[in-house]
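WARN no homologs supplied; continuing
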Amino acid sequence: MQRLLKAVALVLMLTMAAAFPALANGVVTVYGWSGDWDLWFQDWGEKFERETGIKVQYVSGGGLEMFSRLVAEQGAPRADVFLSSGSYLFQAANMGLLESIDWSQVPNASQVADQFKYDKVAVFGYDVYQIAYNTRTVPAGSKPTRWEDLADPRYKGRVIQRTPESDLTAWIWMVLADQYGEEYAWEQLVAMFNNSNHWVGTVGEVVQALSFGEADLSPASIGHIMLAVQMAGGDVASAVPDRPVLMLNGLGIVKNSPNPEGALKFVNFFLGEYVQDFIMNFAGTSMAVNSSVPLTNTALVRIGLGGVAVEDVLARAYLPDFAYWTEVLEDGTTRLGQLSEEIGRRVKGL
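OK structure emitted
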C-alpha cells in the first residue's frame, strides 16, 4: 500500500512539475498602471493572444505600488513585464530587477530610434513636460516661453506647482541646472514656489485648477493639457518652453521571470503598429516611438503642444539621465530622491 501511495505521489509531483512550466509559457504577466489601462489591456491582451497564443494577465495599481511589489518579489518574481515611467524603470534596472533586452529578437525595434532603446528599458512612448496657461487670463501674445516665467511677479499667487518633492519638480531643476548651473536653478526654482500659493499632488488637481480658472500657469504635460481641454472643457493652452522635458514611458523584462520568451514577444507587440497607433492616435497618452505609425491625432500637436511640430520639440527637449539619477547609492537612496528632498527643504525654508 505504501509503495502504491509513493508511486501515486510521484506521478502527481511529475504531473504538476510539467504543468507549471506549461502554464508559465502560456501566460505573460504584466505589472502596470490602473485606470483606463485596465480596459485597454483587455483589448491588447486578446489581440496578443490571437497573434502568439499567449494569454496576458494584467496586474495594475499606482506606479509606486507596482514598483514596490516588484522589489518585494525579486526573490521569486511573479511578473514577466514591468510597465511604468522612466524613473521607476531605470531604478528597477539599477537594482538588478530587469533583464537585458536582446534587441535583435525584437523585429519592431527596427522602426524605433536608438534613443528609445536602452539595455534594459524599451521606451514605448513619451510625453512632454511644459507649461500650461489659462487663455482667459493670459493673452496668447504674453504666453510663457521659459520655465523662469513661472517666477514672474505678474503671476504672484496665480501659479500652480506640483509638490516640491515631486519628480516633476526635480525635472525643472535639472533642465535649469543643465543650462545655467545649479546656483541659478536653485534661485529660480525657489522663486517659482514663492510665486505660488497652490501646491498640488495629483494630475486631477492640476487639471481642475486650470480648467476652472483657479490659476493662470502651471507646469503640465501633454496628457494634462489634453484632459483639461477635451475632458474638462477648460480654456487651457500649451506653451512649450525653450527647453521642454521628455517624460519616458516604457517596459522592462523582469529578471528571472516565469516566461522571459513570452515577455520578449510582448515587448515586440507593444512596439508594433497596433498598440503604438492606439496610445498616440486614440488614447492620446503618449507620442509613439514607432516611426512607421503616422500621427493622425492632430489635436496632440494643436492642443497638447500648442501647434509646435513634434520634430521641433524633440530637437530642443531635455532628456534627463534616468540611469544616473535613479542609481541606488550606498545609503540606499537615489540621487533623484536626494535632490527631491533638498528641493523640499529649500522651498520650505528648512
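The domain at 2-126+247-294 is CATH 3.40.190.10 (D-Maltodextrin-Binding Protein; domain 2).
OK
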